[in-house]
Amino acid sequence: MVLSLVAKKPSYGYEIIKDIQEASNGLYVPSPGVIYPTLTLLEEQGFLESQIVERNRKSFSITPEGAEHLAQNKETETVIARKLAKARELQQGSNLSEDIEMAVSRFKALLRHKMVLKQLNEEQTHQIATIINDAVKQIEEVNAILTDSHDE
């Protein structure tokens, strides 16, 4: 799947994590501890190449050998695509609690990506903390309204 995603467009590791999350409708969010070693392995096998771009981040692109390997394993790619389509189908009947769970999942994935957090300056860190605290307050307010109306 990683090769398939990179074949569509050169990507950073974090973009690949987001692409997999989106492709699975949030059912699977690979951690950086899964993606980065996979990228390194694929690069060592000659299937990917990387180049350092902005902020010392590596952008990965597929090599001719990687494209050939992907073509030889088209059946595997098709099976994965079918499974992801089935996952999206199952999510179509989602209810609101599943929407909340997906949002929390996306939030956790963002926080797990320590590289992003390490690049924040003090002002950005403060802004994000404020956003999170405001969201918590808003959720508490909604919950209080629901609890009050439920008690009546």
From TrEMBL:
Q: Name one Pfam family in it.
A: PadR
Q: Which residues form the signal peptide?
A: none
Instruction: Determine the domain of life of the protein's source.
Output: Bacteria
List residues of the Transcription regulator PadR N-terminal domain: 2-71
Q: Which residues form a coiled coil?
A: none
Q: Which InterPro entries match?
A: Tscrpt_reg_PadR_N (IPR005149), WH-like_DNA-bd_sf (IPR036388), WH_DNA-bd_sf (IPR036390)
Name the PANTHER family on file.
Answer: TRANSCRIPTIONAL REGULATOR YQJI (PTHR43252)
Indicate what this protein is called per its UniProt record.
Transcription regulator PadR N-terminal domain-containing protein
Look up and give the organism this protein is from.
Providencia alcalifaciens DSM 30120
